[in-house]
Amino acid sequence: MYTSDRFIDDQVHGMKGDNVGVWMIMPGNAYKHSAGGPLMKDINSQSTGDQELYWYMNSGHVRTEPWRFGLLWPHASHAMRFTSSTRPPSADVDMSFFDSLNIDGYVPDSGRGSVSGTATGMKGSAEAVVHWFNQDAQYWTKASRGKFTSPLMKPGTYMTRLYRNKFPVANTSVTITAGGKATQDIVATDSEPSVIWRIGEFDGQPSELKNGDKIQRLHPSDSRMASRGGEFTVGSSQTKDFPMALFSKIGGNATVNFDLAPDQLGGVVLRIGTTLSLKGGRPSVKINEWEEADPGAPISYHHQGNPTLIDSRGVTRGAYRGFGDVYSWEVPASELKTGQNTLVIGVIGKGDADFLSANYIIDAVELQGKGGPKNDTSSYTSRYQRRFQ
């Protein structure tokens, strides 16, 4: 069994036995030079054979950006603690003595700055996470009732990103100076298109879909998993009946049956959000007899000028967050009909066998058009758009 926690939540993790525990403690900015951001997860421990304890900063697992380098200590420091108790120790570790060691490349607290502000436009009770990053470092915090203050940050200009749960909803930038206390607000930029129907929520996670509540602890082949693919009927099926992932060589397609009124045939847009793909997997779509062309393999981040796809396993080891690609297609009115219509969603791509074949994890699927209620989500005019880069 493997365990993992979001970087933003990972302050202490460990393993325990009879009256003994061994713990990794990551105080403050321990993940400052990692890759992947606050919502990234990596392996903390595994117990498939021997008990093994890890602390990964740059493993390459589902990596969505180039590695960060530089002085890793002490503002990316960690400690290992052995205890005679099974209770996790405190995450508070005093590293202030490093300020007096005159280490080349080390920036003391006095040489850092911070930014405070308000995150607005967040609807409902969704978690608001604010992320600052550039090629050298990254920091994050959670907004409390909309208010946030960053950790102490090295001077520089940072991209600022706001997440609703795990779905990015705003970008801006801020410049940090030594000893400075900047002020900057950030506003979620979601629009509210008219939606005929939606399956799932655009929140960057598949937890409400079929098997989405199990994927972080069970392999897709586990007998406790529900069948993959299948049929979904809008108006009678439940969200949990729609598969959280589709594979090119196992499990089949997902079929959606839906009805349209006579005045809903024009101006229809199909939108599919994904959270992670493997081997270039992307959606194929067919509505009735209309079949759209291949949207093209996912665009990747660029490393030293070369495009780089995520090349490590995701869904088969409990990871579901990657580039967050969103695809949309304008559906010709002539291809739709009053009454029942059928959408078939498959996978374009090959890869290896079974669960290591080309695949992608689904965030949500929606049909935008006339007559539907307004919902909280983002709209796009392009067929394909990156959300996590």
Predict the CATH topology of the largest domain.
Jelly Rolls
Would you identify the regions where 5 or more consecutive residues have pLDDT less than 50?
Answer: 373-384
Mind telling me which CATH architecture of the largest domain this is?
Sandwich
**Biggest sheet architecture:** 6 strands, antiparallel
Shape: globular
User: Structural class given helices, strands, pairing?
Assistant: mainly beta
Radius of gyration: 23 Å
Helix content: under 10%
Corresponding CATH superfamily of the largest domain: Galactose-binding domain-like
Mean pLDDT, all residues: 84
CATH class of the largest domain: Mainly Beta
Number of strands: 27
Head-to-tail CA distance between termini: 31 Å
State the domain count: 3
Question: How are the SSEs placed, and which strands pair?
Answer:
Layout: E1 2-3, E2 12-17, E3 20-25, E4 45-46, E5 52-53, E6 79-83, E7 114-120, E8 128-133, E9 138-142, E10 147-149, E11 156-164, E12 167-176, E13 181-183, E14 186-187, E15 195-200, E16 230-233, E17 245-247, E18 254-260, E19 268-278, E20 282-287, E21 290-291, E22 301-303, E23 306-308, E24 325-331, E25 339-348, E26 359-368, E27 384-386
Parallel strand pairs: 7-13, 7-14, 16-18
Antiparallel strand pairs: 1-4, 2-3, 3-6, 4-5, 7-10, 8-9, 8-11, 11-12, 15-26, 17-26, 18-25, 19-24, 19-26, 20-21, 20-25, 22-23, 24-27
